[in-house]
Design a protein that fits this description.
It is a single chain. By secondary structure, the protein is of the alpha/beta class. It has 2 domains: about 80 residues, no CATH class; about 140 residues, Rossmann fold. The protein contains 11 helices and 5 strands, in the order αααααβαβαβαβαβαα. A 5-stranded parallel beta sheet has the order 2-3-1-4-5, with helices on both faces. Helix 2 crosses helix 11. It is globular and about 60 Å long.
């Protein structure tokens, strides 16, 4: 899908500011430069997911968003200007999936975007719950209200009325089993963490338990944005892993590579600079 008008303006402006900042990279040491480049990539991912995320300061980021600029005003008032393209597409998918009385899990990496998705669920009168790092677990207190376990159990109950689970893969990708209840997963955005991605895929399809049910995966990808690079990177790593498995060689480590992958992504995206 194409970025909406204000999303495109902000994305292009952030990209230009990254290029301008990069002109002074020669004066920085390697450690500082690594942190800066990772932060720049994260800014682009935030921008493609939800412009409103840019209002919060980001550690080690040198992308200038001057408060007196047109860019800052669009970011500050973004929610009054338009609905993100991904949210519009998400609502179409909800209509299709929930219209068939089926449940769906939405994977999203940014807390602000998770909350935005739930806000739009409420506008659609769709019952949803958030599952992320701040969601309490049963062991933390005997009086926690809606805990992670309670939410998951309600989602698994076909009669509960809870049809949308909005989850953060960093917190939940390997801790929940949904394959008997849910057969639809929407990826609102992706990170460069391939291990988390593979774990999230496994939530709604398990060998030895769900072969008779077809799993459906939907990927929301903005054109002319960082989304395509993230998806291509994940695809390459998945194909590499399956190739290794076919040859019965040791499986590559996919758990600790996200930092390095973000640096490689920066070099790909700004290789001409």
């Amino acid at each position: 899908m194409a970025l909406n008008e204000h999303e495109q303006f902000v994305y292009d402006a952030i990209t230009l500011r990254i290029r301008n900042s990069a002109k002074f990279d020669y004066s920085k040491n390697a450690e500082v430069l690594t942190r800066l480049r990772r932060a720049r990539v994260l800014r682009l991912r935030q921008c493609s997911a939800y412009v409103g995320l840019l209002t919060k300061p980001l550690s080690d980021c040198d992308v200038d968003i001057t408060k007196s600029s047109k860019l800052y005003e669009i970011i500050r008032t973004y929610d009054q200007l338009e609905v993100p393209a991904k949210i519009m597409e998400l609502e179409k998918l909800f209509s299709k999936i929930l219209g068939k009385n089926e449940k769906v899990v939405v994977w999203c990496n940014f807390i602000g975007a998770l909350k935005l998705i739930q806000k739009h669920c409420k506008k659609l009168k769709t019952n949803s719950e958030l599952l992320y790092g701040d969601t309490p677990v049963e062991q933390t207190s005997v009086d926690q209200g809606e805990t992670r376990e309670k939410i998951i159990n309600r989602f698994k109950d076909p009669k509960s009325g809870l049809d949308v689970l909005i989850a953060n893969p960093g917190a939940c990708a390997e801790s929940i089993s949904l394959h008997k209840t849910c057969h639809h997963a929407i990826y609102y955005d992706l990170s460069y963490n391939c291990a988390q991605y593979l774990q999230s895929l496994d939530r709604i399809h398990r060998v030895g338990g769900s072969e008779t049910e077809e799993a459906h995966y939907y990927f929301l990808q903005n054109k002319n944005a960082i989304d395509r690079d993230v998806m291509d990177n994940i695809d390459r790593k998945v194909q590499k892993m399956f190739g290794v498995l076919d040859d019965k060689l040791p499986q590559p480590d996919l758990t600790g590579d996200e930092d390095q992958e973000e640096i490689k992504a920066y070099e790909r995206l700004f290789k001409a600079d």
